[in-house]
């Protein structure tokens, strides 16, 4: 083979590897790393638990319900692992502990024709 051809192939191979490495962080699945105990306490300090939630409630409806309390980072409505049906409670994580405190004032409020319970997580 021609030495110049081998050098071109080596150079192209190197470029390809660099491109693959650059974009692998966008396409490779990220391994879940659970929060540390300290991080979990901080998350819990700005989260609430909402119970007696209607089975057909959506994340968007819950976000709308707590709209005036502050910025919501995440709403989680757990599902039964066997049936896939939503459970009748939700976790709402706010941007700040102050927002979570405001959300506690929504306790015993009506949501989708039910009176919900909102407590600190």
UniProtKB/TrEMBL annotation:
GO terms for molecular function: poly(A) binding. Gene3D superfamilies: 3.30.70.330. Residues 46-121 form the RRM domain. It comes from the Eukaryota. Keywords: RNA-binding. InterPro entries: Nucleotide-bd_a/b_plait_sf, RBD_domain_sf, RRM_dom. SMART domains: RRM. It holds the Pfam family RRM_1. One of its GO terms (cellular component) is nucleus. The keyword RNA-binding applies. PANTHER family: EUKARYOTIC TRANSLATION INITIATION FACTOR 4B/4H (PTHR23236), RNA-BINDING PROTEIN EEED8.12-RELATED (PTHR23236:SF23). This is RRM domain-containing protein.
């Amino acid at each position: 083979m021609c030495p110049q051809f081998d050098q071109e192939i080596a150079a192209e191979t190197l470029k390809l590897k660099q491109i693959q490495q650059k974009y692998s962080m966008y396409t490779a699945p990220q391994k879940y790393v659970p929060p540390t105990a300290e991080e979990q306490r901080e998350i819990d300090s700005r989260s609430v638990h909402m119970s007696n939630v209607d089975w057909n409630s959506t994340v968007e409806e819950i976000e709308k319900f707590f709209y005036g309390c502050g910025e919501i980072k995440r709403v989680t409505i757990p599902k039964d692992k066997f049936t896939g049906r939503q459970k009748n409670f939700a976790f709402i994580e706010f941007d700040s502990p102050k927002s979570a405190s405001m959300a506690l004032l929504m306790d015993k409020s009506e949501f989708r024709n039910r009176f919900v319970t909102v407590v600190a997580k």
